[in-house]
Write a structure and sequence with these properties.
The chain is mainly alpha-helical. Helices cover 67% and strands 0% of the residues.
Length: 144
């Protein structure tokens, strides 16, 4: 059985809405070629584009994130759902208070805002997992 991909999900859902790539691109504020690249697995969407895709195509944001970043499944996947809320909040608090780590990894204020939104998924249970996610995001942005 073939594993589901982000491109397959986007193409199928776009078809269900009877949108052309150009129409979807216009709704998302990107070029039609970018939609084609996403559907063909040649690009990974930014987090803001993932959110717009989810809203426009009425898809689950966490599902899209995991399809775009399958390497993060062990952090936000179903098997992590049992992590207590207090531990998740402690992980965020420890991460943002560790000025040495933030400086060493050159984490910007803008990146902290994005990671805070990722934290709202409620799946992060250790501070170092934020660095993993940040590096995945940075890599995806460099590829765009």
């Amino acid at each position: 059985m073939k594993k589901e991909t982000l491109g397959q999900v986007l193409k199928q859902r776009r078809g269900a809405y009877a949108y052309t790539q150009r129409e979807l691109a216009r709704k998302l504020g990107v070029k039609a070629s970018h939609v084609a690249y996403l559907e063909n697995g040649r690009r990974r969407p930014s987090l803001s584009l993932l959110a717009r895709l989810a809203d426009t195509l009425e898809l689950d944001k966490q599902r899209l994130f995991l399809l775009a970043h399958p390497e993060a499944h062990w952090i936000v996947g179903k098997e992590r759902e049992s992590a207590p809320a207090k531990r998740q909040e402690d992980a965020w608090r420890k991460f943002v208070r560790d000025r040495g780590t933030l400086a060493r990894h050159k984490v910007t204020g803008r990146e902290l805002k994005v990671l805070q939104k990722v934290n709202m998924l409620g799946r992060i249970s250790a501070p170092n997992q934020f660095l993993f996610i940040l590096n995945a995001i940075r890599q995806a942005v460099e590829e765009e």
